[in-house]
Amino acid sequence: MANETFQLAFPDLPVPTPTRISYGISFAESCAKHVTETFHKSAAYVIASASLSRQTPYLSQLEQALGSNHAGTWIGLRPHTFWDDLVPIINDIREKKADIIISLGGSSIADGAKAITYALANNVQTVEEMRAIVKPTPEDLARTIKVLERDGVGNAPTAPLIFIPTSLSGAEYSKFAGGTNAVTRQKDQLTHPGMYASLVILDPQLTVTTPFNVWIQSGVRAIDHCCESVCSSNAQPAVDISAEKGLRLLIPGLLKTIEDPQNLEARLNTQLGARLAMTMLNVNPMVMMGASHGIGHQLGPLGVGHGHTSCILLPAVMKYNASNASLAKNDVLAQQAKLKEVLLAEDSIASVLREAKIDIETCDVGDVLRAIFNKLGMPATLKEVGVGRDKFDTLAKNSLNDPFAPTNPVPLLKNDYDKVMEILELVAGDA
């Protein structure tokens, strides 16, 4: 009989987050157990991925395991979590008197659940009220990092969150909910300490039915978290250690799943690596990401998947930062050299470079990442994902409003439109 591992998600942090992880037993068994035994709740509401609900038995398995403690289910959310779409779910949860929320699916579902628990606590019932709570306050606008910070604003969330992820995005490990404005198509980050998950349940068997391209994409996103952590303008040694461990689990694990998609050990390793990749968001001060995230957030509403934004942008941003190292706030060349050393220490990665006929001695970290992403079958240009030059102007302007633009090692400030365009040109592919 399998044994459950049940522990804090980030036990080595000086101040661990409240999130715990469970793995080793089936997701349905774990969820049903913890709803009643750990959280003492009796009316669980499930928000589930549409594709998973239609194409697999997993939603039914979860509902059956919950039994009389199942209050209701909502199926499907648009990618990139449009704020307006959350309102009917909020009202349904309230009508069914649910006392705990479970997300079953990828990052858009998890982000939606986090925003919903804040909206529930603040009596949101209409689209107008939802738009009001995600409208930037004067305090939001006054901060350099223009996140929609809601700590101390309104009521704190009270409904516990259980996340059962089917991808490697890592959204389940942070208190941030990315959501999109339906009018401007700009994506913002809403946050409150009460939006941390109470529990994340990992089950590699559940992920086998995740579309393979989505699985690999989300793994690339987790790689991006690790790489921009190590090269951050405010990098921290403890986060570096976690990011390096994460890369050693993520990349070999993804390469093994390319060879054998049924390899459950490799899948669990990538899940554990994705958790470590999120350490940067769970320390104080938070380790800030750079332009791969800052521009990538704004590619999402243009229809580009999370991982595709990273595999296109991350190698180019690394090269851009290295070529402009004299303008950086940190020793970006030393950080990138360290990152390259970590990557090449893995035999599977060194093998990828040899296969691609890349000189290990003379290549830079952007070359290493590009070779890995090529091996994983990911796109390299905006043209490949349908983003033409007609979108570059809006993309550049929205990117400069993203909280991770000014925290790029080579800062992208309000008047740095041309710098963003320079990065976009690197990945245009004659878009």
Automatic annotation (TrEMBL):
Q: Name one Pfam family in it.
A: ADH_Fe_C
What positions does the domain Alcohol dehydrogenase iron-type/glycerol dehydrogenase GldA occupy?
19-204
Q: Which GO terms describe its cellular component?
A: mitochondrion
> Which SUPFAM superfamilies did the record assign?
Dehydroquinate synthase-like
Domain Fe-containing alcohol dehydrogenase-like C-terminal: residue ranges = 216-419
Supply the InterPro entries for this chain: ADH_Fe/GldA (IPR001670), ADH_Fe_C (IPR056798), Alcohol_dehydrogenase_Fe (IPR039697)
Q: Which range is the signal sequence, renumbered to this chain? A: none
Looking at the UniProt entry, the stretches that span the membrane are none
Is Oxidoreductase given among the entry's keywords? yes
Q: Name one GO molecular function term.
A: metal ion binding
Going by the UniProt record, its keywords in alphabetical order are:
Oxidoreductase
Q: Which PANTHER family match?
A: ALCOHOL DEHYDROGENASE (PTHR11496), ALCOHOL DEHYDROGENASE, PUTATIVE (AFU_ORTHOLOGUE AFUA_1G06800)-RELATED (PTHR11496:SF107)
Q: What is this protein called?
A: Uncharacterized protein
Write the lineage as a comma-separated list. Answer: Eukaryota, Fungi, Dikarya, Ascomycota, Pezizomycotina
